[in-house]
Request: fold
Amino acid sequence: MPSLRPLVSSFARLRFHRLALGWLAAMGLMALLAPFLANPLPFRVVMPNGGTFYPAWQAEARGSFWDPVVQREREMALREVAWYAQKTASVWWAPVRYDGQPLGKDKLLPPGAPSRLHPERGRHWLGTTQSGRDLLGALIHGSRLSLGVGLLAVFIALSLGLMVGTLTGFWQDHRLVRARGQWWATWLGLFLAWFYGWNRRAVLFEEAAQSQQLGQEILISLLIGGGILIVAHLAGRGLSRLPFLNRPRRIPLDTLGLKAIEVLDSLPRLLLLLAIAAIFRDRSLTLVAILIGLTAWTGLARLVRGELLRISQLDFVQAAAALGLKDREILWRHALPQALAPVYIWVAFSLGGAILSESALSFLGLVEEAPSWGGLISDAKSYFEAWWIALFPGLCLFLTVLACNVMGEWLRDRQDPRQVVRPARLTGS
Reply:
């Protein structure tokens, strides 16, 4: 009789990363195709006289992207048409004829129950919430919100972490030498960029959050701040020609970066997010993603800094410096590509963490927008008998975060030379 130990060992070595990758790919496709998977409007309607309409495509058209009010009015006008009562030659419907919008009469229906308000749309296969949302349609559209917030937060944290980690780990405290005029102009430019790019536009940010144009205003602020920094850099180069302002000075990037990381790490992250989010009256998912990204970059900065400190002492970097290559060329062509391997692992783990952070804030009711997975779970706080409201969104959230962690562990094992995976063999006893 074969022994069970090799069987258990073989089970432990199963490549769960394939299942995790498949789940993440499925969630990504569901998020991208959400309007085509769950939509109460038909995609194509052919009338008996030969006329053809595309209601769902017209509702999703972004011709009025810069005016959300017009976009909403167009969508509501299409919804008011009784497409089910129209005499048509052929109609193409979505697989799920609910998009997660509240339906007043369909509150707390169990899985499989027919709709009271729109029986022609079919059953609520996963039930409804206390506001009458079809749970299956809400899960499909909620995947766009949860994954979108996670990806945006990871992108922001990745950009900040790479920048700070590169500055502190490669240039450290002695490599970056600038004239006194450039140093003073840089600090003045940073202050002016913050003042005119962010402080003076705080009211515009609040108004943009109400009209769902926060991303546009943030982009404008970044352009203003970037322009001020460019002007300050050019002015610093001009001031450095003066005798008094031409004295070289080392910029302690490593010390400044580590102090900033220590200050941010000393604050509880969830409490920090709650405190910052409470400042804004209208809190959108875009704002939540930005806040998560601005508070999640410290771990990556430490990781990149440590890798660059190690790589800077290797022979090929020393040889490149001896050949007379500039620091920027050594960094971009030789040092930084060698330090990116652990970054991929961090991205996998951080994506799950960002989705969890957004779900926690949505669960606490701090997000005023269409519910994500965390927002759907929060609907179950007052209705314990409606088990399906917490089960299905919680299952999607759990499996997605688990898949991110499994992919992170697989990437970590792939880069560890000590991890040698050999196929297990069944041997007789």
Observations:
- The domain at 1-39+143-176+252-429 is CATH 1.10.3720.10 (MetI-like fold).
- The beta strands are 44-46, 52-53, 90-92, 113-114, 123-124, 177-179, 248-250.
